[in-house]
Predict the 3D structure of the following.
Amino acid sequence: MLDHALESAFVACLQSDPAFAGVYFFTGQDDEEHQLPAITVSAKSEPLTGSAEIFRADVSVMIESEAHDSRPDDHASLVEKVRSSLAAKATLIAAINGAGKIHLYGYAFTASTPDVDGTRFRTEFTLKAGYGVAAEN
């Protein structure tokens, strides 16, 4: 449940950026077939030792494009837009916290993994995040 709230919070913030017009967004909870280009956010959380309210999460942000419909430069441009959005940490954290579903304390990049198979360009950003349940008003 909290994983999905974290995934949805990242998706909502990225999706609100006009730079991502024409891009499809999914969470790790979505079972539908992905239309491309797509950004999929998935999270796996665990509570911090001794806490039922503070969690750490591994967050994956996967960017996918059709390899035969796109040039590698188009995929690289989309990847750079996502990287820039995630690099604006203060803005993203404020937007996520402002939505009131979760309270994101911070996050850090841990890896970037580009890949290509026969039909898709894929780049995955892996983040470590600390968050908690948003305080009720």
User: Anything to note?
Assistant: The chain has a mean pLDDT of 90. The first strand starts at residue 24 and ends at 27. The domain at 2-133 is CATH 3.30.70.1700 (Alpha-Beta Plaits).
